Amino acid sequence: MKNLQVINNAEFFVRENIKMIMKLNINDRAALAIKKNTKRVEIRVNKENSEHDYSKLKENDVIEFTSNNLGVFYVKVKEVNHYNSLNELFTLEGTRYTTSSTDDKEEAIKNVSKLDGYENAIKKSGVYAIHIEYLYSENTVWEELYEKAKKVRNPREVSGMISAGQVGAAILTKNHNIYTGVCIDTASTLGMCGERNAIANMITNGENEIVKLVCVDSKGNVGSPCGACREYLMQLSKNSKDIEILKNVDTKEIVRLEELIPDWWGYDRV
Fold first, then answer.
1. pTM of the prediction?
2. Which of 15, 32, 215, 254 is deepest in the core (most CB within 10 A)?
3. Which pLDDT belongs to residue 48?
4. What is the model's pLDDT at position 90?
5. d(Cα 92, Cα 185) in Å, to the nearest integer?
6. Residue with the larger pLDDT of the pair 17 and 51
């Protein structure tokens, strides 16, 4: 369940594992740089009467950015550093990943200082360097999940009795994180499908609610979870029936988990 918490008149969604979602607008150039991983630090200030307080951001919080061309995309907060001036910020952080417009320190200081309200805000309360990691974009989430599932595949013989990596899976959680896994095949019944491996990764990291799933076989085709995986998925959460599973990467055709396991027996227990 998600609770609504109001901080300085801003709405933040607090997830089950106490991760905050902050909603911000961003220009298209910076948004594209973040998606390409050439911009890894977002510079923000606490303006007077602003609805956002960047001092509240913590590691693993999520920022929901909106830009005109890219639409909505998500990043994870890795670190937040506070500086008294832009000179201090760019001296310690550099310009390589902090700005999408220039590599020159003095020009970077000049450009940021010109932003609406920044100069006065910095004089009053300093400036924040928010280290971020791109997660995914709402407009391309299925393609991104497919590529992650495809990339993680690595067919190999682990031993004379175990092979792995022929199938890859990627899952998107309610908290906007993506976890991957590969299949492990054994000479007995102790193997594990890629979906369950990804689930194990998710649970290890403290989550249990999935919203989207993609499975890719050795030929690059999208596959459907086996019966055991369907049952495993259903037992994770009362909302598991709504998990969307990709059927066709080109058409973006999906199927909901409850369609693959009708009349499930355990609704009164999860």
1. 0.87
2. 215
3. 86
4. 96
5. 49
6. 51
Q: Tell me the average pLDDT of the chain.
A: 92
146 located within any domain: no
Residue 129 lies in a domain: yes
Number of domains in the chain: 2
Residue 73 domain boundaries: 3-138
Does 104 reside within a domain?
Answer: yes
CA 180 to chain centroid:
12
Q: Distance (Å, rounded) from C-alpha 88 to C-alpha 3?
A: 37
